[in-house]
Amino acid sequence: MASEVNPPHSQHVVCAVGAKLDVERLADVVGRVGGPGFRLDRDYTQDEPDPRMPEAFEVSADRVVPSFTDRDKAAVAEHKAVAYILGPQAGAEDAFGVSARMLAVIGALLREGADAVKSESSGIAHGRERWLYLADAAATATDRAGQAPALFAAFVRRPLSSGLVYYSCGLHLLGEPDVEITAADDDLGLEWMDGLGRYLLVDRGTNEIHDGDTFGLDANSPTRTLRHRECSRYRDDDLFYNPWGYWRLLAA
Predict the structure, then answer these.
(1) Residue 5 confidence (pLDDT)
(2) 167, 190, 184: which is closest to 247 by C-alpha?
């Protein structure tokens, strides 16, 4: 568990597959684009196909903005090598910047031989063109407010479900708690998740949030009460584990 000796942190692990992956070239790209702390995981990178990849990418495909095309599926099915990229461990203050660097690495990998990419740290995959669009959007943004939408879309998977509780996974990669909401079967709470996600990353500025505070999507919307919860959904050594917990949005 987190302590003063082992402070809360998250870590990006990314999987890239391709028909023609030059491992040394990829290692150079990762170090050059990512910078300090980014590296190719040579222990798990392999110069042979992994039969688990088609299913792994299929179940990870983003459902909010579907982008994993038949061409992307074919590229995964025909891959000949698998590479794993590690980012540095990042605390809350560093995580946003580290995520921006990892998204830049993903864009560079796709331009340097990788055919498909998924995040092992939040279980999300996008199609090649979607990854490149998000990487370019983050790279051309001039401030945090401009980068945040691309990073949120790239790395935060939602809505996931556990019974009637819907939740996100991936905000830990941006140094924030993930979001939970209890909703009816025909309402996945996506608008609330995205609204609170933006508030956490941009709109709140330096304002602190406290258990019991209320949140609304805009000045005229209903409000929900915020309750902080520890992350018990995943083990603390799981890549999905959020050391900053969850904000659950409760109807008033």
Answers:
(1) 61
(2) 167
